[in-house]
Each structure stands twice: as C-alpha cells, then as structure tokens.
What we know:
Blueprint: E1 20-21, E2 31-32, H1 34-38, H2 40-51, E3 61-65, H3 69-80, E4 83-89, E5 97-103, E6 109-115, E7 124-132, H4 136-147, E8 151-160, H5 164-172, E9 175-176, H6 184-188
Helix pairs in contact: 2-3
Amino acid sequence: MDLCHVPAAREKGWYLALMAPNVKGPNYAWLDPSRLYCHPQGLQDCVADLLQPFQGDPIDMVAGIDAMGFILGAAAAAVLQKGFLAIRKAGHLCVQTAAQPYTDYSGQEKVMEVRTDAISPGLRILLVDQWVETGGTMRAAIELVERLGGAVAGVAAICIEDSEGGRWIQERYKCSHCVPPRLQPRFDHHQ
C-alpha cells in the first residue's frame, strides 16, 4: 500500500495492510508494524481505534513499553493530553528504578525497569505496547506499575494474540487492540 493512499472506506484495522512480513528469519518478529507508523492517516486511525474503548475512562498517564511501545504510547498520550512514562529495558535509566525480570516472546530472559518517582499510589495508567504475543513483557510492566501502587487503567496494543499470556491479560484488565475478530486467527497463527 502506498504511504500516501487513504482508502475511501476506512473500517477498523484497514491500516494493518501497511505492515510487512518478516524476511530476515526466526530471530525477528513475524510482522513489522513500523511502516504503519510512517502513514499519517494510518497512525492516526490506529491510535483512535486503540483509545476508543477507553473514552470517558479515568486515565492519568500513558506508559509505553521499550521500544516500539514508545511510538504508540507517546501518540496516545498526546491525543489524551496526558503525560508519558517510558518503561525501559534494564540499564537505560540513570535514576532510582524498580526492576522486573521477564521472558520475552523469543524466550529470552530480560529485565524491565521504571523510574520509581513517576508512579504514585492510585495513579491510573494506560499501558501501551506494539504487540502482545506471549504476554511476558506486558505482564512485567503490569507488575511494575502495581508494585509501585499504580492502577492499570487498561492495556492497548496493535494485536493481543490469543496465547496463554494474552488471555491472562484480557481476563484481568480492560484491553484494546486493532485486529478485527475475523482476522484474529490469522494473527494468532502468524499468517
């Protein structure tokens, strides 16, 4: 799809066609959404679709997960006129942090950090990431927010896969994603 083309009928998820499949092998994610972010209307519609279920909900801050969650999270924060908190991979913050180990979608053990002075008790935080595949990364972010006394106002991602971790998150938190139900099985099976 041309990066300037906007379809006449823009139903939820039309911009998913902008994403590109993996051509580099098993060490990479199966699909790359970064081209979607280059399309001005695609990015706007994606963020609007992610935020639609939270309209009227009390949200104090948006947090994006390192690294691609920074793009959607910052865009969502700007639309909501809220502050943005970066939840980082360990070793990137030079201030007091809380850390949480996790296993990412590729099975690698990692550690996530967040600054301790940004979350006060009761602060309602919308967590945003690009993708929830196994749920390990998002669950670590949830644990950090809750350990510091914050409340998870919701979880938003382009796709929340129907995995054990994805189901765990959807059963416990209000969630939003961009994949229409008819396409969800294709995303769950990486087609």
